[in-house]
Prior knowledge:
Blueprint: H1 3-10, E1 19-20, E2 26-27, E3 43-45, E4 48-50, E5 57-62, H2 70-77, H3 80-83, E6 86-91, H4 96-104, E7 110-113, H5 117-124, E8 129-136, E9 145-150, E10 167-170, H6 176-187, E11 196-199, H7 203-211, E12 217-221, H8 224-230, E13 234-236, H9 240-243, E14 250-255, H10 262-284, H11 290-301, H12 305-309, H13 324-336, H14 353-362
Parallel strand pairs: 5-6, 10-11, 10-12
Antiparallel strand pairs: 1-2, 3-4, 7-14, 8-14, 9-12, 9-13
Amino acid sequence: MKPSSRLAAVLLAAGILPVTTACGSNTAASPPSSSTTNSGQAVSFPGGKVAPLNPPVTVTVADDKDPSGAGIMLANALGYFKQLGINIKAISFNSGADEFNSLAGNQVDVARGLISAATFNSYRQGLPVYLVADGGHNLPGRPYFALVLQKSLESKVQHYSQLKGLKIGLVSFGNVNQLFMDRALAKGGLTNKDVTTVVVDSFSDLVTAMGNGAVNGAMLVEPQISQAVAKNIGFVFKDPYQYAPNEEASTLMFSSHFVKDKAVAQRFMLAYLEGVRYYNTHYIDSHQGEKKVLSILSKASGDPVSLLTSTNPAGLSPNGLFSVSQVQQDENWYHQYGTVSHETPAQKMINLTFAQWADKILGPYTSPKS
């Protein structure tokens, strides 16, 4: 975010008209300043009116082109950010590591990513990033991130204990890939010492490795899961909702500077959750707006609609919340493996106040299935 925009953002707290605050108390904000908000264009929501930022503020967002970023993609395409005075500047990176480092260094304001050892270590080193909302999880029966085994093993490996002795491919150690694998092994009374793990740089290469027999299985993400199944290379071993029911495959993260721009961060989250709710209402929980959603996601991600319709979508929480206790368990797991040397309470890296505020402004989410 530009420095001038940050200065304006500090003055914008008064731009929120009577609403319920994140801490649960009802307060009436002071009248908005004409130099920072435009109350005549205040946006009405079930929980109150929110004035757009004036002048508009540019927020830099790491763009990973992943369809699980549907909340941001839809909010941008449908004008939710714009109506609240936010312009999105998308920045692409060569790797997840580069993206994370840029967020930790306050070179970008917002990113989505895995919860990894780097998340905790960066905080301890004085370069914190904050986990602020759900950024992608598995839906029951619709695996978006899962353990996939070679098709030839489908009749031979049917129980968790039968994973023993297999060679499992991971894109990297010390993050959610290895954690998910360990959760599956634990269901069979196994540990990572009971399998051979191999690091392969990309999910696509892991599918190839399974196809040529270099590995017996791999932790995969969509669309590689569906591609492996469609090509008869692999099968999904168990619904990951069984062995890792509350795990976050991805989270929305704010930089340490961005969390201080409360008025801007709140409005970003509000627009984000509008996009997430549109995604759930028109695509996940019903098909009433599927064509439009898929068209937007295809344009933003570069994936053809035909690919998107053949893969399992990521789950996105309509209120943005996720399990804090589960993140703490994840940190304990990293500490157990020695990838996190000093434990820091997970609560220090989690800031759900923006999501809680936005959820109250938007009101309770009602699924079209209910």
